[in-house]
């Protein structure tokens, strides 16, 4: 196993990330769909989100030893990246949320009804805390040390930023499959929309990592864009569609910038 990891670190990382997440996720899926005769607590989905983090540290430890683990930890703590990129990582999700509200106002003639936040999942302190912790912190911390901390830097040694993102995208997308299928209300249309969202986010996150070499900044953006999207969805579907469209437009502009600049691999 160690020899395989050393020869094929990316394959080993992907296999281990899927093993951890799908190992839990498939059981959750079976329980949610009533394919088995037992219940599984929903908190296990949060545990499954740490598959990429655990896989990244495991493979880094085998392939690069203590130096690889220290490098990954250093990137997760790197906050001195310049005021501009701190602002992009921390403020852009909420700037997009504000812009989405403006779009709804422009297209419908009325401001979004933010009083909708007073009902539903975000109405109670417990629901709000769970939303921030699970949708934000857990998913950002559990995923980004793997996707942007381990996988992306190694892909960039061989590919341009855009090609590296396009290689990473389907791996990241399909990793979510058990959690997606565990929600019976989601169908094919939602899968295509979800795929577009994952691709858009992958492009944004590649840009942030390219400019900062900081997994911390990737964690923050991932966490905050999830929160911003969740708030938009809690307000109204038009607002959620507006913020999703803005993230997509931003991704298209970033991809166009890469195509014009043609940054080299490495």
What structural keywords apply?
266 residues, mainly alpha, 11 helices, 80% helix, globular
Give an account of the 3D structure:
By secondary structure, the protein is mainly alpha-helical. The protein has a domain of 182 residues. Helices cover 80% and strands 0% of the residues. The protein is built from 11 helices and no strands. The longest helix has 32 residues. The model has no long low-confidence stretch (mean pLDDT 92).
Q: Please report the number of helical segments.
A: 11
The SS-based structural class is mainly alpha
Q: Which residues sit in consecutive blocks of at least 5 with pLDDT less than 50? A: none
Radius of gyration: 19 Å
- Distance, first to last CA: 28 Å
Shape: globular
Strand percentage: under 5%
Quick recap of the structure?
This protein is an all-alpha fold.
Give the topology.
Elements: H1 2-7, H2 9-32, H3 43-48, H4 51-77, H5 83-108, H6 125-156, H7 161-175, H8 177-181, H9 188-212, H10 215-235, H11 237-261
Helix pairs in contact: 2-4, 2-6, 4-6, 4-10, 5-10, 5-11, 6-7, 6-10, 7-9, 9-10, 9-11, 10-11
